[in-house]
Amino acid sequence: METNTQTALLVMDVQMGITGMLPEASRLLGNIKKAITDARTKRIPVIYVVVGFRKGFPEVSPNNKSFSAFKERLGNTSMADFMQIHPDVAPIAEETTVVKRRISAFTGSDLEVILRSKGINHIVLSGISTSGVVLSTLREAADKDYQITVLADCCGDADEEIHRVLTTKIFPRQSEVVSVDEWIEG
């Protein structure tokens, strides 16, 4: 049986600049908070991942359709404010926050170095959006041979049908998909 020190809970893109765009964010935040509380109780590391860019967005290529639109929309927004993790699920002092520059939590970040240094081989995914950071991180983590659990009710997407299809048909091919209550009980 796997020990808790080999597992980490990833809380991804649950930032002030993103949560406001999601319908029913309060329900999602409540579920994520429940997962965080349980992880902390069980001494499972909680690692936060945020998307952010330097002033002027030098990391954004005009060839990147998603982030070019992001740059246009948020060009005058304070990145510090945008990247602030929602206070309902904010990290405590000893928890790590990783800044990424692309959709996957791995791409353009030091997440993999942090996971390796902690001996993590099982990641539990939560965050916004199911069709963005969760999907991209799951795919990359599977290619890197991580064991993966997705907390379906700790992931949210602006399109509920896309969320449903991903969590019921696509994600189970590469991960275990459970509710936060099932994960806590398991």
Your description of this structure?
The protein has 186 residues and is an alpha/beta fold. The chain has a single domain, classed as Isochorismatase-like (Rossmann fold). Helix content is 40%, strand content 20%. It contains eight helices and six strands, in the order βααβααβαβαβαβα. A six-stranded parallel β-sheet has the order 3-2-1-4-5-6, sandwiched between helices. Strand 5, helix 7 (160-170) and strand 6 (176-178) form a beta-alpha-beta unit. It is globular and about 45 Å long. The model has no long low-confidence stretch (mean pLDDT 90).
List the helices and strands and how they pair.
Layout: E1 7-12, H1 16-19, H2 25-41, E2 46-51, H3 65-74, H4 79-83, E3 96-100, H5 111-117, E4 122-128, H6 130-143, E5 147-156, H7 160-170, E6 176-178, H8 180-185
Parallel strand pairs: 1-2, 1-4, 2-3, 4-5, 5-6
Features of the shown structure:
single chain; 186 residues; alpha/beta; Rossmann fold; six-stranded parallel β-sheet; 8 helices; 6 strands
Assembly category: single chain
* SSE string, helices as H and strands as E: EHHEHHEHEHEHEH
Give the C-alpha Rg.
16 Å
What shape does the CA trace take? globular
As for the CATH topology, it is Rossmann fold
Counting DSSP E segments of at least 2 residues, the number of strands comes to: 6
Helix percentage: 25-40%
- From the N-terminal CA to the C-terminal CA, the straight-line distance is 12 Å
- Main CATH class: Alpha Beta
Order of strands, main sheet, comes to: 3-2-1-4-5-6
Number of DSSP helical runs: 8
Tell me the strand percentage band. 15-25%
How many strands, which pairing sense, and closed or not: the largest β-sheet? 6 strands, parallel
Category from helices, strands and their pairing: alpha/beta
- Please tell me the total number of domains: 1
The parts where pLDDT drops under 50 for at least 5 residues are none
